[in-house]
Amino acid sequence: MAIERTFSILKPDATERNLTGAINAVIEEAGLRIVAQRRIRMTDAQAKTFYEVHAERPFYGELVSFMTSGPVVVQVLEGENAVAKYREVMGATNPAQAAEGTIRKRFAKSVGENSVHGSDSPENAKIEIAQFFTDSDIVG
Ligand code: DAT
Ligand code: MG
């Protein structure tokens, strides 16, 4: 398996509770390297574009308003099988269903305020990374 990259967001519920270091520790302990990282306030346009696939879902408005409600940390993670590995480390979308030890089981507040985003495929990882980072921002 080749070295792969995935896109991660530490969401407003995580920054609000000062959990960025604790979550980064879980990421690094899993063997993923943080090769780019920036703390930003997402604009309404950025959040809408980012979650466009969910535009028809009933929670879309709530999701966009949550993602713009406070600072987020956008990241590029690198490692063997990074996309699938980070999904495993994150845990299920709903923290009530997330496995023990996962980020969402440990830190998420609810299905909506679930602390982290991770790309769901290598193709989407490339698209999502390009929304927030240029090649020169990423130092592998
Ligand atoms: P994931 O973030 O695990 O990839 P997803 O892509 O299905 O999950 O949904 C994107 C985000 O939308 C998710 O992290 C939180 C929010 N969301 C999903 N399902 C929801 C629901 N039933 N109610 C409220 N928010 C939801
Ligand atoms: Mg998703």
Automatic annotation (TrEMBL):
Gene Ontology molecular function: any one: kinase activity
Cofactors, names only: Mg(2+)
Active site per the UniProt annotation: H117 (pros-phosphohistidine intermediate)
Residues covered by the Nucleoside diphosphate kinase-like domain: 3-140
Binding site residues for ATP: K11, F59, R87, T93, R104, N114
Keyword presence, ATP-binding: yes
Intracellular or extracellular location(s): Cytoplasm
Catalytic activity as recorded in UniProt: a ribonucleoside 5'-diphosphate + ATP = a ribonucleoside 5'-triphosphate + ADP; a 2'-deoxyribonucleoside 5'-diphosphate + ATP = a 2'-deoxyribonucleoside 5'-triphosphate + ADP
EC supergroup of this enzyme: transferase
Keyword tRNA processing: no
Enzyme Commission number(s) from the entry: 2.7.4.6
Keywords assigned: ATP-binding, Cytoplasm, Kinase, Magnesium, Metal-binding, Nucleotide metabolism, Nucleotide-binding, Phosphoprotein, Transferase
Assembly and interaction partners: Homotetramer.
UniProt family annotation: Belongs to the NDK family.
Stated role: Major role in the synthesis of nucleoside triphosphates other than ATP. The ATP gamma phosphate is transferred to the NDP beta phosphate via a ping-pong mechanism, using a phosphorylated active-site intermediate.
Record-given protein name: Nucleoside diphosphate kinase
Species this protein is from: Methylobacterium isbiliense
